[in-house]
Prior knowledge:
Layout: H1 10-18, H2 23-42, H3 49-61, H4 70-77, H5 82-95, H6 107-114, H7 119-132, H8 135-148, H9 154-170, H10 179-185, H11 191-207, H12 209-218, H13 220-232, E1 240-241, E2 244-245, H14 247-261, H15 265-281, H16 287-302, H17 307-321, H18 326-339, H19 344-348, H20 351-358, H21 363-376, H22 382-393, H23 398-415, H24 419-433, H25 439-450, H26 456-469, H27 474-493, H28 508-521, H29 525-541, H30 546-554, H31 562-577, H32 579-585, H33 594-605, H34 638-643, H35 659-664, H36 679-686, E3 696-699, E4 716-719, H37 723-726, E5 740-744, E6 748-757, E7 760-772, E8 779-786, E9 791-795, E10 810-819, E11 829-837, E12 840-848
Antiparallel strand pairs: 1-2, 3-4, 5-6, 6-7, 7-10, 8-11, 9-10, 11-12
Amino acid sequence: MNPFSSGTRLRDMIRAIRACKTAAEERAVVRKECAAIRASISENDQDYRHRNLAKLMFIHMLGYPTHFGQMECLKLIASAGFPEKRIGYLGLMLLLDERQEVLMLVTNSLKQDLNHSNQYIVGLALCALGNICSAEMARDLAPEVERLLQTRDPNIKKKAALCSIRIIRKVPDLAENFMGPASSLLKEKHHGVLIAGVQLCTDLCKASTIALEYLRKNCTEGLVRILRDVSNSPYAPEYDIAGITDPFLHIRVLRLMRMLGQGDADSSEYMNDILAQVATKTESNKNAGNAILYECVETLMGIEATSGLRVLAINILGRFLSNRDNNIRYVALNMLMKAVTVDSQAVQRHRTTILECVKDSDASIRKRALELVFVLVNDTNVKSLTKELIDYLEVSDQEFKGDLTAKICSIVEKFSQEKLWYIDQMFKVLSLAGNYVKDDEWHALIVMISNAPDLQGYSVRSLYKAFQTSNEQESLVRVTVWCIGEYGEMLVNNVGVLEMEEPLTVTESDAVDVVEVALKHSSDIATQAMSLVALLKLSSRFPPTSERIREIVMQHKGNVELELQQRSLEFNSIIQRHQNIKSSLVERMPVLDESAYIGKRAGSSQATLSADKSSQPTSSGPTSLKLPNGVTKPPAAPLMDLLDLSSDDAPVSAPSTTDFLHDLLGGDLISPAPSGGAGTDILMDLLSIGSPSAPTDVRVPNAISSKQGNAPEPKTAPAPVMDLLDGLPSREENPVYPSITAFESSTLKITFSFTKQPGNPQVTVIQATFTNLSSSACTDFIFQAAVPKFIQLQLDPASSSTLPASGSGMITQMLTVTNSQQGQKALAMRIRIAYKVNNQDKLEQGQITNFPRGL
């Protein structure tokens, strides 16, 4: 016989394919076999049709195209015999899916087979329908399936229930038709029918709230009975798994109970007794028992259970944490994360076990346990938990140090009540894992130290000692260098020694040694730059070391990094030639505003655009922040936060200097202050370090001219330097404000025009006009804006979402702004424009600070 004729047996073809040694040989065998099958199909060979389809199914499983045999499936399904139908339905499920148009032709055959007198043919039709049913087929055949749910044969009932699940998922509107038959399935004794019936009820609850209420009313009692019977049933070998009767039915029933009891006190109360029985009697030494216990815990936490049952559930999870199986411990940690929101106190009892999981060898368990510990921290246990985590930080794996360090820093910052404790814990973290500490964390530590004058001496001495043993930790080196540069004289003179401190003797040369080591051994440019600044400051604090410091600084005059080279040359010039201004230039930094810094960090970690204000604030939001020292600070000026400027308005006390500094910084930028103004104030203003409070005469351009002939404003106005940002109050009842170009790029131009409401000077109506400067139209145009906290912003819908190309059209949008500090603080706004050009997403952002004064 020809090995590739239609009469070839399936096993012979499989043997021929498996004998191939290369992929090319296999493709050749399959190609010849497919050619023979095509020839047989074209000849309408009925004798070998079922054999050909069996071969096609094997070829399909190998990944070769078999679409030419789809019609053969339909012909076999239409046959009268069971063997042909079986191969036909199997081919239908393998070779076709619900998206094939050919499937529409089989609906009539399915309907006939669902009404067939042979139960096995009915079972074939139900299996096929349950696997490839489309929405149209579901609507056509749902009555037949619903009828089959009420037959006597348990196998037909089971298959009809599974087919009903598919129909409900495809057409949820049909769910109400299956409510009655589904509830009647729960009265069956056959476990296969029960599992299928419970799953059908579960899908009904998901698909329809009406079905949920119906099943809650009619099925709760039946579910409790099923669970009680299964739990108390004697040994049954056909359902027994590891000594437990049918754990699969246990789990399905518990899941359905959770859905019915959620948010319903009456149903939950009816379930409490049986759930307590399952939780206490189920053995936990086998995996099947643990699966039932876990599902029981989820049900207890999901329904309106009593507090005693919830404590019982959490205790079961605590036992899971002691299990040697990593999978069981992981799911227990996941469940405890959800349980914390329900009963935090009960979870706290297992804190010790959870801490042990943080030290587990499995990375996923460590990470999940660390997240759970972070949630468990509160004001009463923060010190003990932090100590445990820091102790483990010393011996933890390198790949875990980053996550652990971030969590410890967050805990210390969020829950610290004492500045000293906060500083001590951060120093420990910097010493053990300084390379993993993020910039925001050590910046916050510096802000804290600058706000704690009584702890500055202690801080610089502690950092000096830590540097001797941990100078490879980059963040520790930076904080140490900064503190020695600022408070070096406190280190040498032992200023502010605390009772618990051990005596420490440090000379001026020792302090310089630390900075020199940091400069030479660090490869980080930022650390080297900070070290050079610290050396410049020490040259003023320790005059005897000035020449040595100059030599160290000059070693970098030929550095390949331009930043370091420039600093080296400039600092050398200051040390060598400008002794008269050096002390003013390098005097101690003003106290950094702690609340302003925290507010800025919070603002950078969450969306500030008005379109995102409806989202829930995160834990890092300003409302949930806790100052590290536990002291309430006045709120930061929002304008300063928005413009990234310092809001420290305290006057900077500095000795007067010669006119050299004035000439160095740019001549007649600002006229001399009438009383006590110092050149240092100019430098600090340029560097955004602080703003002087002493008034100066500032030249103000006549930017607001009246079109009605009103008198122009004077050319000079006595005002603080910050009035350059804050603007001048309007003296007109209904002033006219000029339009401004708020934003312009290569693609967009935005123009703002302003009008005031009479009698309400705080409210400004802004008309934003958008013009497209590019040659392509912008679609899906969205404009968003954010303002400081003292301003309220209302955005009206834009006139269109499409912006024509080349300025041929424009979009307008109205903005209503209410400035609660009108006349004192100026408007400022950040904007974001999102649009599409040729179906590609574009995003532009900008900041508007050129609003007319007086808005």
